[in-house]
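Continuing from the previous page...

OK, I double-checked the sequence for L-carnitine dehydratase/bile acid-inducible protein F against my notes and this is the correct one:
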Amino acid sequence: MAGPLAGLVVADFTQLAQGPFATQMMGDLGAEIVKIEPVKGDWMRHWSMANLYIEGEGGSFLSFNRNKRSIGIDLKHPRGREVALRLVDRADVVIENFRPGVMERLGLGYETLAERNPRIIYCASSGWGQSGPYVTRPGQDLLVQAVAGVGYLNGNADDPPRGVGVGIADFTAGFHIVYGVLAALYARDRTGRGQRVDVNLLNSILNLHVQEFTLYLNGAGLPERSRSDIPGAYLGAPYGFYRTADDYIAIAMNPINKLAALVGVEGYEECAESQVMEGRDQVRADFQEGFLRKTTQEWLEILLAEDIWCAPVNDYAAVERDPQVLENEMIVEWEHPKAGPVRGVGIPVKFSDTPGEIRRPAPLLGEHAEEILREFAGYGDEEIRELQAAGAVNQ
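Thanks. Re-ran it with the corrected sequence; updated structure tokens here:
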């Protein structure tokens, strides 16, 4: 069965992470993703986290680009631009994450595309927004984390600011791209008209702070990190990770007196609330001493039986073995024409009637150029050879 977005055609001009993550999600759900790359390829074909390349294919690129077809186009070449315009004529959605103004300079801005195709949904995703004092700055995940105040929510009070260990701004923006595009498609069903959708990293990551920033704006004061690894500046003890006799255990919100009795910590018999803010570092130290008496598995058996909110603290090897991760089919494998078997994260949302699926691995650069030109742009064989000879599209 086809996925829920089957029949939707997306002209994907995106590179790096935020845009490709969004279009991969849409491809997983059945959309036809036409990845329009520079003739030398997406920037991430030539850079990979951990410097991991599998038979020459970058691990990061493979992570973000399954379920797509690729064509390399020189958008500065007049005939290349014409190819792109003909592809957009057939598309439902255009997604790009260039710096503001780039698509306009290429002759591919929203006004131009909407004049040719009034039903087009055009989503622009940038680092900082389409206007303002930061508009010409590079918009990258860590830089946006820094401006959005993320660094002062993580770590301990005496530590320097600390970034989040995954590209949280990129990925959150990816989700905002998808929900913005789907909302615009729903509106188009009612109005018959497309529209422009704007997403940026800064807005996306601030939206994750909806609770913390509201607290600050309404009198909670500046967030103050604890000195004892409590993982939230506005959270009290005993919330957090604790060392056990052999590993670590995570403890969430629980009645403190109940938890203390089970762990064998004295002095909290009358404390029925689920968190203590005043003196929270000492509360955490008291509970830490108690948790050292047993192994993680022993604590899980004791605490889960009493409906205490707790969990093991997995490293990646443990995540790979975790029975719930396996039950949810969140580790999958597919075949790549060069890299061979590739393992990765599965499709997170499940549908009863129109399930998503991995139909294609990440494409080789320009792997589908000729079929894209025939199928979506209406070029014949002789015209395709002329375009390739002129350097407007890749071989």
